[in-house]
Amino acid sequence: MTTSTSSPSSLVIPSCSYGALLSRYSAWLHMERRLLARELWPELGDLAYRYVPEDEAVTLFHFPLDGICAPASSRAAPVLHAVGVL
What is the mean pLDDT of residues 71-83? Predict the structure, then answer.
């Protein structure tokens, strides 16, 4: 997959469709979560992904008190580009 940018600070523009981008992001988040959970809680085995720790800063990022939060989809291209998947 190729990408193009006008400058290093610009958003990555994927060469795939928007739907394909979001599908890839969803898959990446899922796999990353499962692998991280196995590292954090190895004693839970394959069920580790079911445990989600409470974190106030993370909760407020996704559900701010003023109700204004950028959609999760807005982070898809930058995250995938940063990890080398896009």
Answer: 94
